[in-house]
Every structure is written in structure tokens, then in C-alpha cells.
Write a structure and sequence with these properties.
A four-stranded antiparallel sheet has the order 2-1-3-4, with helices on one face. The chain has five helices and four strands. Helix 3 runs antiparallel to helix 4 (137-176). Residues 2-52 and 209-219 have low confidence and may be disordered. With 219 residues, the chain is an alpha+beta fold. The chain has one domain (54-218). It has helices at 3-28, 67-80, 82-122, 137-176, 180-193; strands at residues 54-58, 61-64, 199-205, 210-218.
Length: 219
């Protein structure tokens, strides 16, 4: 090794030594910079849509804002105000009959739909595939194909009948059921003949004692 080469090697070691010491010192020193940790929690709960409850308020009593709630209130007047009860009871009975008929149509539609769905599967023919050794293989194969085709038609027909029955039952229930306007008409009829009016209370749930911005409306 020549003098010049030895001198260059020594110079390189002198240069690397401080760098290596600085690197070791840097690695030994604790990190002083702040570290931000992000914790990913569970996703926020899905929003629940609350329907503002409505109730019929008479004095200090509250009833559900429906036909059944009005019936409950009207029954309380049977002894205290028999004249009021006798005037409103026929109208309530008529609406209750409509509600009963609506439930009957819905149940009938569900029953027919369920029976049709079961029969679509259980009422299929038994189709036996002919073996290759069958002497009438061609004719029996054709009969087997026709049997499968009949089963397909059978299933499609009764499945459609079942779905149609469900839909018609729901439509009949919706059409025959007393509407909100029917209940409001009862409230109006009551307030025309009673000194103590019924008020429609919006935004209070007496079951959960939850107030959602109460609004009281008289009819």
C-alpha cells in the first residue's frame, strides 16, 4: 500500500468516526416530538327515525290518537255522560266494523297466499326419468319432459297466485281500514256536543314520559 493510499484511508476513518458517533447518539436519544394516536372507535349508531306521537287529551286524561284510543275514552263516558256515549257509539261501531273487515281481508289474503305457496311445491307431479334400457325410451323421455314442463307451469301459476293474494289482501286492508280523517271526524263530532273538548296532543309519549316538543291542537 502506498503512502497516498494509506493517507486517504486514514482520512476516511477520521471522517466516518464522528458521523458514526453522532448516529449512535441520535439513536440513543428518546424521541421528543409529540406523537398523536388516532383511535378508531365503533361506527356511530345509525339514526333512528322517531315518529312524533299523537294522543287525544281530555282534561287530565290522555288516550292513544287512534280509533281504539277514542273507543277507550268513549267507554269512560258510558256512566258519566250516557247521552254523549249514545250519540257517538254508533259512529265508532261503524268504524270498528270497517277495521274488522279490513283485518279479515288481510288475513284471508295471507291465508290464500300461504296455501298457494305450499301447494306450488307440494302439488307437483312425480316425474320419473326413463332408463336407457327402456324399450319405449323415446316416448317415455318425451312424457318425462312434458311432466317437468307441467310442473314448471304449476309452480309458476300458484306462486303468482300466492303473491297476488298477499298484495290484494294488503290493498284491501289499506282501503277498508279507518283513516286518520275518520278519527278526526269523531273528535270534531265529539267537540260539537261536549262542553269539554278533545285536544290532539302532538309530541308527547306518555308511555316513556318523553316530550318531543308538545303541541296541543283543538278540533
Amino acid at each position: 500500500m502506498g503512502a497516498s493510499s494509506f493517507f486517504a484511508l486514514c482520512s476516511g476513518l477520521v471522517v466516518l468516526a464522528p458521523s458514526s458517533g453522532a448516529f449512535a447518539q441520535l439513536m440513543a436519544e428518546p424521541v421528543s416530538r409529540p406523537v398523536t394516536l388516532a383511535f378508531i372507535g365503533p361506527p356511530p349508531a345509525s339514526r333512528t327515525t322517531y315518529q312524533v306521537p299523537d294522543h287525544l287529551e281530555v282534561g287530565n286524561q290522555m288516550f292513544d290518537g287512534s280509533l281504539s284510543g277514542f273507543r277507550t275514552y268513549l267507554d269512560t263516558t258510558r256512566a258519566t255522560n250516557p247521552q254523549l256515549f249514545s250519540q257517538l257509539d254508533p259512529q265508532v261501531r261503524e268504524l270498528e266494523s270497517k277495521a274488522t273487515a279490513a283485518r279479515g281481508v288481510a288475513v284471508a289474503g295471507m291465508a290464500v297466499g300461504l296455501f298457494s305457496g305450499v301447494y306450488a311445491v307440494a302439488g307437483r307431479k312425480t316425474c320419473n326419468e326413463p332408463p336407457i334400457t327402456d324399450p319405449n325410451f323415446a316416448a317415455d323421455t318425451q312424457a318425462w319432459g312434458a311432466c317437468n314442463s307441467d310442473n314448471g307451469t304449476h309452480i309458476a301459476t300458484f306462486m303468482l297466485l300466492g303473491v297476488g293474494s298477499f298484495v290484494l289482501g294488503w290493498i284491501g286492508w289499506y282501503a277498508l281500514s279507518p283513516s286518520r280523517s275518520d278519527v278526526l271526524n269523531l273528535v270534531n263530532a265529539h267537540n260539537r256536543i261536549s262542553p269539554e273538548p278533545i285536544r290532539l296532543q302532538l309530541g308527547y309519549d306518555p308511555t316513556n314520559r318523553l316530550a318531543l316538543g308538545g303541541v296541543s291542537t283543538a278540533f
